[in-house]
Amino acid sequence: MFGGDRDLDTICAISTPPGLGGVHLIRISGDKSLSLTRCFAPFLPGKPESHRVYFGTLISEKNSSEPIDEVLITYFKRGSSFTGEETIEISCHGSPFIAQQIIKNATYYGARVADRGEFTYRAFLNGKVDLVQAESVLSLIHSESEKSLQVAMNQLKGGLSFKLKALESEVTALLARLEVSIDFTTEDIEIINASEIKERIQKIQEPILTLLGSFKSGQRIQSGFEVILVGEPNVGKSSLLNRILFEERAIVTPIPGTTRDLIQEQIMIKGVKVTLTDSAGMRETQDPIEQLGVSKTKQGIQRADLILAVFDVSNPHFESLVPQLPESLSNIIFIGNKVDLICHEEQLELLKKLQNLLTQLNKFQNVSEAETFIQKRSIFISAKSETEALVTQNQVLKLIESHLETGSFGDEAILFQARHYENLQRASECLVRAGLLAQSSSSPEFLALEIKEALIRIQEVLGEQFDDQILDRVFSEFCIGK
Ligand SMILES: Nc1nc2c(ncn2[C@@H]2O[C@H](COP(=O)(O)OP(=O)(O)OP(=O)(O)O)[C@@H](O)[C@H]2O)c(=O)[nH]1
Ligand SMILES: [Mg+2]
Questions:
Q1: Structure pTM?
Q2: Which CATH superfamily groups domain 141-214+413-463?
Q3: Which of 29, 215, 293, 346 shows the smallest number of beta carbons within 10 Å?
């Protein structure tokens, strides 16, 4: 898609979303931006000031006395624009027809309509951003929560690139050292010893492992977390959903089997997008509609990042609830609902009962692990109580927040793109193999091969090593005009 003579063309596109709006923005980038725009924007001076806005009337290519629109034009000189090329931005009134007319004029005078992501591609090509930063532009556009915006912005500002560049220079230095070693092996001089190599490999490996470790949370921060409410019919799942949302979103009745489908709503918890799902109560049933609902609940359990397993404290059926949940308890929280129906002693007894059952099912290594789990992963609430409504909502939201792995990343660089993860994973594997080779006192040639491969992987993330396929993959996800 990209590359070759096409990279020399002056390109144009509407950068605002299609349809009616307050304004539309048309971007023109390339060597001929100014000269071709002046053909239909005669009010532009021959030598405009960079970053200055000019007001005037555009005229049609067909008839110079026919005005198209009154517009604002911003001029960016070569080297001082997003793409690094001479760029013109035209803000016109928000009619798709006017915007199209401007594109028609620009192409008439020699511009070509840009491909997806071509402006960002040019920024990459002209060294304005590296590939990691170019990708962050896309993430920034797609950000749906405060946290994902923060993470993408950090990447755009170069947070991740800075880390990767530091790694690149460490790996290059090690490789250079190994290569010197190779040159001197015939003379039997030990230029670099095994323990030094191992130490240096470890120093490189550590930040890579930290980055790899941040991937799961990073991805979730971008795409959002899924939390599902499950349990037997009538335990109060829908009542709890309504409590959390603070609105009567789902139907609540005393009839078991009221909810038949998944009911989803999005909420923000600490700046992170969370999709909250209410589900059909799980039970054996002959009703075909309810059967479909139960099967959807089971699929929802597989997908969820966090499962809120709700039970009715006045009628708990742990023996049938627990086997319906995933084998591992790592993402499960037990919520005892209808606590208004029992006393404190009964609550303690229930917890003991749940703990015993989970222990019998070999979910824990020892008693203290079981006790800690119950302490941290179970609460009692009354979803129905109006007076406790705010407290219940707060309690449950806090619990969800503390169990979602949003990480406490602050301003640190984290990984959230699969392409970065795959490359760094491979770099890390090379380093592990290199470490083993160093341990077995292998020849430096073999070691150098692994280190070289690790270097290539890091450079590929940054876009210092790339082929057209990688660029096509990255930029094809962009929209036109970006
Ligand atoms: N006493 C008491 N009743 C509650 C409480 N929470 C819910 N209920 C009642 O329990 C019944 C069932 O509530 P739902 O929220 O519909 O239960 P559900 O788990 O969604 O049920 P299904 O959709 O059938 O699976 C309703 O009559 C609620 O009013 C509570 O905290 N205390
Ligand atoms: Mg329900």
A1: 0.76
A2: tRNA modification GTPase MnmE domain 2 (1.20.120.430)
A3: 346
